[in-house]
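Sample pair:
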Amino acid sequence: MSQNIADIRKEYSLRNLDGDEVSKNPFQQFDNWFAEALHSEVAEPNAMHLSTIGENGRPNGRIVLLKGTDARGFLFFTNYRSVKGRELTAHPVAALTFFWPEMERQIRLQGTVEKVSVMESDAYFSSRPRGSQVGAWVSEQSKAIAGREVLEAAQAAVEQQFKGQPVPRPPHWGGFRLLPDSFEFWQGRPSRLHDRIAYTLNAAQTWEISRLSP
């Protein structure tokens, strides 16, 4: 490499995060920051790193897209037969990380995971572009295939199968909801003395707020 990786540095100085100014509710704090990310034209603000527990006991991560939030949690969709789908079914806990470098911000969440209702999965699936609906039937997600021509042949077959009619949701495709019990909001600051505000759900089901050392 032409540059030593250890020498790559960035000084963070855009904003600060004051514990006296954050919302008492972490969901509201997330909504506030997400709205700012949209206003700041962050590239794909709903892209998040999903960490699961693998079948071998190791952590496993990938980028997925947030598709909704409510008072319960954070919603995303996948093939239930995929690696992440099987992992979340076997170990229904996960972590999410949002990183918005344009704003020098990061949000981390941890919690339990549940499958969403059939009604919720149907409603979201029906809102997807037809090509994405077809793709949900075509892809045996995470399975090894001989080549792209396998996908193209399957795509042609599915398009013919549902020609002239709505594409139904595959029974093996649907949503998960992460129900967070902890949040951390991170704001980059100079000299690596970053601001970190944590929310933890206690036994009384109320949120405790604390500032963490960077």
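The beta strands are 47-53, 59-65, 68-69, 74-79, 93-100, 105-115, 173-187, 195-201, 207-212.
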